[in-house]
Write a structure and sequence with these properties.
disordered N terminus; mainly alpha; 237 residues; globular
Length: 237
């Protein structure tokens, strides 16, 4: 393809270098704060520090699914490949981050509740959310026609978001053993713990932006190359 056709993608990939240069030291600082700045929790000990990974993963998975919701709505309105690719890219990251949140939450739960898993409202709704969006990704990889698949995925991307607020408020709506960290001012955290949590959320946020832009750029470039290949084959035939 001509250089002018690929210019937006090359510019995007170059800008990602600067985001990555910011994300790497931010993640290192967050790790330093987790292990050396934040105090050791009196009851759970060192295992409590998994919270500083668990919480950012959970929050940014919610943001990912919000992006899926907005991008799906925009696709239903505009019917452009840009929004379809953005929804798919955000869903991939959301499934990854929510899966990591479930894993780290299980490690935390084993120390706090003496079980790896319990059918708590927060855990159950989160698991349902993970399966719904995993199914969304399977649907995106189905052999269905391009535009039809994008339309069906957009509808599912809108409907699936109904579970996300339910996950967020489940610990408040029902009796739950899962703590509501931001239920009161500061969440009952010591200042050093709160600073570490915020640093972790900022660092994971930078990583999230890098991943989202990278996958979206790859999806858009792959779609553009597929269109050019199809046009070439039609011309050749």
């Amino acid at each position: 393809p001509p250089r002018s056709t690929l210019f937006p993608y090359t510019t995007l990939f170059r800008s990602l270098k600067f985001l990555a240069l910011a994300a790497i030291p931010a993640l290192c600082v967050a790790q330093y704060m987790i292990w050396f700045y934040a105090p050791i929790e009196a009851t759970m000990g060192l295992v409590q520090k998994v919270f500083y990974l668990h919480m950012p993963m959970a929050i940014w998975s919610f943001v990912s699914f919000l992006v899926v919701f907005v991008a799906s709505l925009m696709y239903l309105v505009r019917r452009t490949a840009f929004w379809d690719a953005l929804a798919g890219s955000a869903a991939e990251i959301g499934v990854l981050f929510s899966g990591l949140a479930l894993i780290t939450g299980s490690i935390w739960g084993r120390a706090a509740w003496n079980v790896w898993w319990t059918w708590d409202p927060r855990l159950t709704t989160t698991l349902i959310m993970w399966f719904v969006y995993a199914g969304y990704l399977l649907l995106r990889s189905s052999p269905m026609g391009g535009e039809r698949r994008a339309l069906v995925c957009a509808v599912l991307g809108v409907v699936a978001f109904l579970d996300v607020p339910l996950v967020f408020y489940s610990a408040r709506l029902w009796r739950s053993v899962h703590p509501a960290v931001f239920g009161r001012q500061g969440g009952g955290l010591e200042p050093e713990m709160l600073h570490t949590l915020l640093a972790g959320m900022a660092a994971v946020g930078l990583l999230w932006i890098c991943l989202l832009l990278t996958r979206h750029g790859q999806e858009r470039l792959a779609g553009r190359l597929a269109a050019l290949r199809s046009r070439f084959l039609d011309t050749d035939s």
